[in-house]
Predict the 3D structure of the following.
Amino acid sequence: MRSYVLQAVSAPAPSKRHLVRPARTTEVVLFGPASTLSRALEDALQKQGYSVCHLIPGRQTTRQDKTHFKLDTSSQDSVQALHALRGAAGDRVRTIIALPDAPQAKRSTEPREMSTEFDRAKALFLLCKVLGPRLSAAHADTTPGWLIDVNSIDGNFGLTRRGEHCQQSAGSFGVTKAFALENPEVQVRCLDVAPDLSVDAVLERILAEWGWHEAGAEIGYTSTERFRLELTAQPVRPGSAGDLALDAESVVLITGGSSGITAQIGTELARRYRPILVLVGRSPLPGDEADDLHALTDPAQIKSALIASARRKGEARPADIETTFRKILKDREIRANIAAMRDAGATVEYHALDVRQCDAFGKLIEQVYATHGRIDGVVHGAGIIDDKRIRSKTLASFEAVYDTKVKSAQVLARGLHPDSLKFVVFLSSISARFGNAGQCDYSAANEVLNKLANSLSGRWPQVQVTAINWGPWDAGMVNDSLRAMYAARNIRLIPPASGAAICLDQLQRGPGSAAEILVTASLQQLTEQIQRRPPARPATVPQTIRNAQEVLR
């Protein structure tokens, strides 16, 4: 098992002689605010013979003129309304270019009309859901469709620890990478252009990337260099129990801390430091279990007892029995984890709260400061999954997964006191690094956590802020069927005890260490299988995979 640091490394510029773009009889859709950049791109594309449709985020979906439309991205129906407005013209879409919201867009003198609920990741998800099939249809024309997602963080995907204004917008990169894996016939590019690049420079770089077939989706640009992202192994440094300077008076806030991998980390914190652990979870703290179930451990016996009890009450519906069975197992897990933390010497508080309720979560943070006078560390592990491909996923499903991680992380960033804080660790996912089919929302949410970690590291230099992109654990959301699937693919799972120890050892590296890392037991297998796509033209080996092969030899 190894940990890897994400780095931006210099990459050669695209070759203009090998560009393969969709036919000029097709249409390019621009998505983003009206700006000098959008107008320059419209002009350049029209001069090359392409039709252009510019979708501008707004409060309702309406036609402005032949080329420009306001687009309400608050619901699938409002995005779907484009079809009625555009008719057969929309069938020619073969390229979507999502434009940055800042800083180039801010140079426009036009007023910006944008919904207060606008979120770039959610908007791009809906756009991919409605227009994505048009890009896939391009495969029949022998030239690939294109999705180009342009952001403006720092030209290095946040690794310089600047660019605070675009943390949340970076979630769209997770959507784009997931879309690529679900639609391997479509070419994608995630571009991060530095804020100080001129409009002409950004325009030139977008056009240079469009049609250049290169394995690896993420490319960054500063005023002097073109970058791609690579993973480099870092040694797993054994730490001493005193490195975090925690003790029995220290307070660690843990979201999602009563179950799964987060509880494993909480138990390891209890074993090493015996601090005060403030756990936040959605489930109410369970009471004592019924006597007739307490002694049963075999799932079949538990279900038999539930069926017998339900029949006596005349309520033996299979769905209700299954729900009750799962709640029993969940409650047992919560009791066992809290008991393990207390047995290890920690003082444990439990608060039942949905962290998507921002006001309530913010008040809880204030309450912890009022009660204890401090928060020394935070482990943000709250998260849910609801895996479905983009074409089958609803906006409500996307929001449930995405908001659980993102909204609560934003509350933490606003509510924590960095002057007395030692560490914050965001439990992110390998799906953010590479994307994952069926997990566009989870990829997007964790990508936001990654960029937020880099930004907070720059704002709070005395605090260790880390986003750990975990490979699959042998715990939590991994069930028996997933274990069998991973075994068949020769992917090793992270043992809970080892993963928890690595998490704490990573925190002991201290402020100034890498803010975005990846931990997995099978990087080579995961990258090869997650990124499996038809060969790019010209054929190249993905740089992240090549580097991983070198590291693992």
About this structure: The chain has 17 helices and 17 strands.
